[in-house]
Amino acid sequence: MEKKTIAVVGATGAQGGGLVRAILAEPGKGFAARALTRNPTSDKAKALAQSGAMVVAAELDDAASLRKAFEGAHGAFCVTNFWEHLSAEKEIAQARNLAQAAKDARVTHVIWSTLEDTRKRVPLEDARMPTLQGKYKVPHYDGKGEANAIFGEVGVPTTLLNTSFYWDNLIHFGMGPKPGPDGTLAFTLPMGDKKLPGMAVEDIGRCAFGIFARGPEFIGKEVGIAGEHLTGAQMAAALSQALGQPVVYNAVTPEVYRSFGFPGADDLGNMFQYKADFEAEYCGARDLDFSRSLNPKLQTFAQFLAANKDKIPLA
Ligand SMILES: NC(=O)c1ccc[n+]([C@@H]2O[C@H](COP(=O)([O-])OP(=O)(O)OC[C@H]3O[C@@H](n4cnc5c(N)ncnc54)[C@H](OP(=O)(O)O)[C@@H]3O)[C@@H](O)[C@H]2O)c1
Q1: Cβ-based neighbours of 26, under 8 Å, separated by 6 or more
Q2: Of 153, 60, 128, which is closest to residue 98 (Cα–Cα)?
Q3: 97 lines ligand 1 (CB under 6 A)
Q4: Which domains does the chain have, with CATH numbers?
Q5: What is the pLDDT of residue 252?
Q6: In this predicted structure, what is the pLDDT of residue 112?
Q7: 176 with 312: CB under 8 angstroms?
Q8: Using a 6 Å cutoff on CB, does residue 7 contact ligand 1?
Q9: Confidence label for 1 from pLDDT (cuts 50, 70 and 90)
């Protein structure tokens, strides 16, 4: 039987990479992975080719390149990388290119990796958090959420996949525990006692694979995934256990977090405030049993830490 090809945007990255690995790990399910990258000669691209993916060149700013890369594919996993440029407008333009290319190439199932448009609950005039870049509250959410409608407008069969905070941010995004003045490790989040849905990023790709494997069931639907919903205190307790030394939860206010000064601190401060203020809705949109039904290997935070604790920088 001919395999169904999934064209994977961001295949050299965290989300797309997880999906490529999930496809290749279960050849019996009848899918093949086509890995899209701007640079097919990079080490990561070569490693994907070696592991069994077909690697093709594509650029999100170039719709024709996407159309070519999507040609003949059954499905397409679409993701944009806000953190490379910090522009919601650019993400929206890239999402339009993706949707149009998928339509033109007659892709039968797109997964759009997205996040909520926070302005639906926190309109720009709501002064609880500053408006950023003139028209957003959480730019890296709002652009993706605004782009959801584009897939419908263009008329491409799409599943909107709301992802969750990567626990891997503790490794790669400077969000791990840091020693305080007395040397005790402190894990900082502006979430008070509210729960943060989180997951190992590898599980996003595995859940996406679960969606493709279930067939058309989730076309036209918006779904959300997470590994666990945990408070900052619970995360600090799990970190203490895994690291074998005390980690305290340092609950700062969103105002303080926004003032940290690194690029995107204001965006992330607003994001955490949104997640805290709309805890019930935000967690409710990311059901754990549903996520596990897509991906039986779904990790808990403790499992993630057991496998990754040595990679978390503690300085
Ligand atoms: N950190 C979190 O907690 C979190 C949670 C939920 C959602 N997100 C979202 O996840 C997104 C990033 O996904 P990720 O973590 O998987 O990214 P990543 O690991 O940083 O990798 C980015 C991927 O995107 C590809 N890419 C970037 N720009 C491209 C372009 N112009 N044309 C073609 N390919 C391009 C890169 O491919 P090449 O370099 O090989 O071309 C690479 O594979 C962000 O938008 C972020 O908002 C993050």
Answers
A1: 209
A2: 60
A3: no
A4: 4-311 (3.40.50.720)
A5: 98
A6: 99
A7: yes
A8: no
A9: confident
Nearest CA to ligand 1 atom 28: 81
Q: Which residues sit opposite 32 in a β-bridge? A: 5
| pLDDT tens-digit map of 46-81 | 999 999 999 999 999 999 999 999 999 999 999 999
**196 contacts 231 by C-beta, under 8 angstroms:** yes
Q: Is the CB of 193 under 6 A from ligand 1?
A: no
Q: Is 233 in the pocket of ligand 1 (CB under 6 A)?
A: no
Q: Which of 81, 84, 136, 164 to mutate to test the pocket of ligand 1 (most atoms within 8 A of CB)?
A: 81
- pLDDT tier at 248 (50, 70, 90 boundaries)? very high
Per-residue pLDDT at 220 exceeds 90: yes
In angstroms, rounded to a whole number, what is the distance separating the alpha carbons of residues 301 and 242?
A: 10
- The response to whether residue 39 sits with its C-beta less than 6 Å from ligand 1 reads yes
Residues 6+ apart with CB under 8 A from 9: 16, 36, 58, 60, 76, 77, 78, 79, 80, 98
If you measure from the C-alpha of residue 244 to the centroid of ligand 1, how many angstroms do you get, rounded to a whole number? 33
Task: Give the single-character DSSP code of 127.
Answer: T
Instruction: Tell me the pLDDT of the chain averaged across its residues.
Output: 98
**Atom 31 (ligand 1): residue with closest C-alpha?**
60
The CA 92 to ligand 1 mean position distance, Å, reads 14
Rounded to 10°, the helix 14-25/43-51 angle is 20
